[in-house]
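Below sits the subject:
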Amino acid sequence: MDTLNLAENLIRLRREKEVTQEEVANFIGVTKASVSKWETKQSLPDILLLPVIASYYGVTVDELLGYKPQLGKEQIQKIYHDLAAEFAEKPFEEVMDASRKLVKKYYSCYSFLLQISILWLNHYTFAEDPKSQMRILDETVELCTHIIENCKDISICNDATVLKAIMDLQRGRPQEVLDSVEDMLSPYRLASQSSGILIQAYQMIGDMDKAVSYTQISMFLHLLSLVEGATQYIALRAQDKEACEETIRRMDGLIELFQLERLHQNIAAVYHYQVAVYQCQQKDIDGVLARLKRFVEIICDLLDREAALHGDGYFNRLEEWFEGLDLGKQMVRDKKLVLDNACQALENTVFSPLMEDRRLERLKRVLTEKRETL
């Protein structure tokens, strides 16, 4: 009960009402000593008395207890980033248990549960074994299902549906993914082709500031989507050298043109890594090492930055949007875990032909030394 601030609220409400402990006791039908003990945390009122006390002060029982089942955006951000930092410092199960307790405490705060789902999705791979990882994925799916079935906010439900689909992919259940999001994400739906509607509407009412901002956001998201799509395309068409080489040529030009290695390091790093995997399959060792070098340089640059999301001289209207995102501009994982993932990426067995190459060893050493600065 202490965490509910009952004692503090009893004192505050009594003083606001300008009554004595004796007057409160007389109304409720208890002794003055009982009221005193409630206010000094020596004892708790009988649960049947809570509605009577709340009625006396003109508040709800939740308000009397100080129970706040809903968290604000800034509170959610802080909890998320605190837990993400703890995943890098404390035993995995200890942090998971702490997050589970928060889920039970705020089980009706669906925006919070959504972010916890994202937290678990971003960290489940750090569980000690595949069985534990699958158990966490199952828990996360259950949490998303709870959101979808009970939340009245359609946008939160849609996000939970997409998150659940991502986890179903990780659980090896592609048919469930198709059943849940095929229609929602279909390129044939008007919603997937309607990004310009808001921009035109803001322009027509004379709100040029929002029109320009939304245009930049749309351009930025489409740019990221194009590079992400190309990265997947290279993986899918790895046996088609002509298609892959042309995709790489075009994306290299696009990334340089929009300075994506500085604008969005994560997208650029993943792209270069996938190209390195493709070039290894082509036995282009020098090409592989050149791409991995860029991968390492971009990761190091990302770790040197305070915020993971930022604009630049061209995309200069994104800051307000970044600030408005559920998790803000910060990384969804702690920097140490990002670095650990990068180190693991260089150990991929696909690069086994290079394991004795000194150039690869130097890249690994760069990441190892980087950890000492975090």
User: Anything to note?
Assistant: Residues 208-236 form the longest helix (29 residues). Residues 231 and 350 are 17 Å apart (CA to CA). The mean pLDDT is 94.
